[in-house]
Amino acid sequence: MLGFIATLDHPEMVGVNPEVAHEHMADINFMHGVAQAWEAGKLFHIDLNDQYPGRYDQDLRFGSRDIKAAFYLVKFLEDVGYDGSKHYDAHAYRTEDYEGVKDFARGCMRTYLMLKEKAVQFNADPEIQAILAEINAEDPALAALFGKYSSEKADAIKALDFDRVAISKRGLKYERLDQLTIDLLLGMRS
Ligand SMILES: [Mn+2]
To answer: What's the pTM value of the predicted model, to 2 decimals?
Structure first.
């Protein structure tokens, strides 16, 4: 859709409204899609709900199925300062009465706000941030080659000699980082 929008006569009028369930239905990483739309300046709206992969459009209560995906989504929206609509395109179980529907609606908003607090905690956690700093540390020799593409940069990268064995000996600590994230989400890091 982002590619299509760029071909329109008035692309500035058009953006996207991604929905959690529509991406999770096809087992796609929703946060990555949202980040791509954000980077393109096209995140005009967002539909928050939840969904099991491979099922019909379930529109489950936000955060009720994949809490970690919901966390990273909320963290992304808060970190970049998205201030557009946050729409819960979801509905309660058919088993609910009127009060149950209100429980569902409150739950959507409560989970968003809890995850927003968890994102603040994640960003302030010294051990998590130390691992991220280590993972994301840039090699000064490569820094000049990042960013916008040019054929000169491409040639320079092709000419580099990477020591595959040495590089692969360094663990990236994603298991530790992920477990710390789980501990945080489950309330085991104060
Ligand atoms: Mn839906």
So the answer is: 0.90
